[in-house]
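call fold(seq) -> tokens
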Amino acid sequence: MAPLVAVADPPLDVIAGPGVRMRASVDEGDQDVTDHSSGALAALDATLALRVSNHVAIGIHASVSQPLHYVDRYPFGNGPTAEYQMWPYDLGLVVPVSFGHAWVAPWVGVAVLDQYVSGSGSFGSPEAPLSPWTKHAVDVNVGFGLTAGYDLISHGVDHLALFVAVQRQMISFEVSGALPLDYAVVTCGIAYRRSSR
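ret:
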């Protein structure tokens, strides 16, 4: 009988959990654009990484939150309007680094805004009839951020942690031509973390 050979689990680290996303800074932007988004949005952050040393891993970071809601109205409210529903997605290369029960995970990649826009009239021809329209646009920008956490409860390789994530949020309004917004957002939440070592 051939001897049994133990097969080790792959050295994968997992960090995933829900949180609440809020703005850490405000960009004034275009005076004709009003923000109708909630001040606190539900979000989900996730990381899957391959451990390359006792403390460092390399992998993929992804996150998503509830949609943002903006309205762009022509000055004095007697012209074209555009209402934006935007789903933000982030995807990037992440390098989690752990120090006992504490860990940080910087990432860089892309920030995607999946935009569904409805309105009336034409911002390029404000005197034109205010006929209704809908458009779909996908805006892609450079994204980067940092997640830091601390394990509250640990059992072997499984941990329950509190985390704080800070990242860039850039918003464009290309359909109506309003000035873009560029600011930072903070997500606070609780996550499951699996460390392979």
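The chain has no helices and eleven strands.
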